[in-house]
Write a structure and sequence with these properties.
Blueprint lengths: L5 E8 L2 E6 L13 E3 L5 E3 L7 E6 L6 H14 L6 E7 L3 H11 L4 E5 L5 H6 L2 E2 L4 E2 L2 E5 L5 E6 L9 H11 L1
Parallel strand pairs: 5-6, 6-7
Antiparallel strand pairs: 1-2, 2-8, 3-4, 5-10, 8-9, 10-11
């Protein structure tokens, strides 16, 4: 793990600086590839969405109020975004917990994926929190060719992302 970039105090958690592992991605960067299990343990990769606009979010845990609200909000917005837009949320929650949460909340338009196995998504997208073993809250909008067009690493993990800016970025590409 010595080759992984450490970004001390990149964001805060309850006001305390935490270290994010991995690069800080920027608009114009190629979206790193990933393959993660969905709620049925089926592998899903970014390549599965080639030709789509992808609203890709990372959250610490769906079982927390902020993550719950965020994922429900994006699920509601999905119906306004068109058929060529995919919404994907990645967390460290086990796929079984994600399936239970989606069933209990009625979230059916956001695909939930788990980074529990090797944290490869967290490292590739620069959202793995060294001190907590969770993913930081972040939003990435990836265009149909696989280029990142919008990035928000939410500065305080317990805060909501900028929904309007993320949705505007998606709509400009869809």
């Amino acid at each position: 793990m010595s080759s992984i970039v450490e970004r001390p105090n990149a964001v805060t958690f309850k006001g305390n600086g935490v270290t994010l592992l991995g690069p800080q991605l920027r608009p114009g960067d190629a979206a790193p590839s990933f393959t993660l299990p969905n709620t049925s343990l089926k592998p899903v990769s970014l390549a599965d969405y080639r030709g789509w606009v992808v609203l890709l979010t990372s959250v610490p845990s769906l079982d927390t109020p902020v993550c719950d609200f965020e994922t429900r909000r994006f699920n509601e917005e999905a119906q306004k975004l068109g058929a060529d837009v995919a919404l994907v949320t990645v967390s460290m929650d086990l796929p079984f917990a994600q399936a239970r949460w989606c069933g209990a909340t009625g979230v059916d338009r956001v695909v939930t994926l788990s980074d529990y196995k090797d944290h490869a998504f967290g490292y590739a997208y620069g959202v793995y929190i060294k001190e907590l073993g969770l993913l930081a809250r972040a939003v990435f909008v990836v265009d149909a060719e696989g280029t990142i067009r919008y990035v928000e690493y939410v500065p305080e993990i317990t805060n909501q992302p900028d929904y309007d800016a993320a949705l505007k970025a998606v709509k400009s590409l869809a």
